[in-house]
Amino acid sequence: MNYILACLLLFSSCGDGGVEDIIDDNENFKIIDGRVVISPIEYYNAIRNPMKGFREYFNPAKDKKRSQYPYPYGTMIKEYMQWDNMEDVASDGVEKVIEYSNHRWEGVEDINMKVIPRAYIIWKEPWLGGMTTNPEDPDDLRGSHWPSDIPGEVYSEDPDTPITGGYFVPTFQDRVKKFVKKLGEAWNNDPRVAYVEMGIIGCWGEQHDPNITTYWLPHTQDYHVANRTWIPGIEKTLGDAFTEAFPNKKVMVRYAYDFKDYEFGIFWDSWAMQQEQVRGYAEMKKLGDRWKMQPIGGEITWNWGNLSKFNSLEEVVADGDTRDLIIDQIRDLHCNHLGGVTWADFSDAEFISNAITIQKAMGYRFIINEFNYPTKIESNSPFSISFEIKNTGSSPFYYNWPVEISLLDPDSREKVWSTQLDDVEISTWMPGNGWDFDENEYTIEAENYLIEEELTIDEDIPDGKYIISIAILDPAGMLPSVRFAAYNYFNGGNHPMGYIGLNQDLDEFEIPITNFDDLQKDTSLKYIIEN
Predict the structure, then answer these.
(1) Tell me: the pLDDT tens digits for 56-86?
(2) Count of other CB atoms within 10 angstroms of residue 287
(3) SS3 state at 313
(4) Largest CB tally within 10 Å, which of 4, 131, 154, 405?
(5) How many whole angstroms separate alpha carbon 402 and alpha carbon 388?
């Protein structure tokens, strides 16, 4: 009911009529010189799409897995992964990492979710109010998770005394290299993994206690002391290890001022926080066009600083000034995803409306400006198609998933023929740039990307009437996954463009809008894990 209300609110600005009136006004479907030219009506609602938007968090020690499909805009879960559960002693093999990952991530492919794993050791230091792990729950995130063959930290109250044990064991950095290599062997080609947060160092793996470098003052005292507030050499150790271990995944680090010799993404956990404008926002701005190749994400945290006046994400985004700042920062920094939504109430109509606005800004949003194809094609004879794409979101899609053109049976909607477009790289479909805070638009408008392809039906399929369709596939199983913001949609992830004749003349080409499905309500999408 809330979803329908949100749609009605969004359509209220489009005139007195419904979607049919919009189509008539736009004259979006034409036949020109034996070719169909369609401009699909943009789907004005937000979209649940892979590897973008609101990112969830799951604590296996206390959060019950929901039996229902994930939140309306959730497609990723941040997973804190305890080091000792993946490697307790140095001799443990990669199989232990894989086994624990399978345990924690069971079934995510069936609901089209991806994970962002972050290996860590300490949930919260004892002197910061940390809690101990529940020995009856092996998945408890709290407490310390040092491997059993690394001695724990010995802390001193003296601010000038180095800490012994833990991060400061002489062999620790060599051990880190070997551990990260195992993580890469387990996760680098795992289709469940969207991005990897580096983590490991500090509370929650947030790399600020101890620090990675001395660029910024420490959290725990007024000045840096080697082997106490920071770990000399760890920046290169981790930078090299993660670069080598994850050539096929995007790696994200906590602070934009660390790892300057590397091209990592960023997870900034204090969006819209005044206290982090210099340390976070300003440092991220210095990265320039890093966002074009690496994801920028993080979370909205309302339990400290100027956001501590709010008690929930619903309250944060209901505040107009704060919501506007969040969206401005999303647009300006080209944010791909944000956490903080896990405990939100999606039965709240006001929150749904605010969530839609934020979800539409985050990540990519692909619009089909035009799709062009011949009214009639012949078997074994080349024919041309073209389509024009625009990304009205804030970030690209960071992997080159294949684009598929297919012919569907007009009655069953089953695929009878398909081909993948070899030369299309969807990761190059960039959004606009140079956000104007006053005008609420990019000063450099997003480019229109024209794709032109020559195809041939070289399979033996019956003559007749078909539907020509476009889809973006998840390489894990080659099933439709990424959706365009278009009303032309069939459940299962295909975007039907119109009717086409194979060795047959047709007298109709436009698919009635009543035949389309609501893409936001489609919960059938999934991907496949090969054993």
Answers:
(1) 988 887 776 666 677 889 899 999 999 999 9
(2) 19
(3) helix
(4) 405
(5) 16
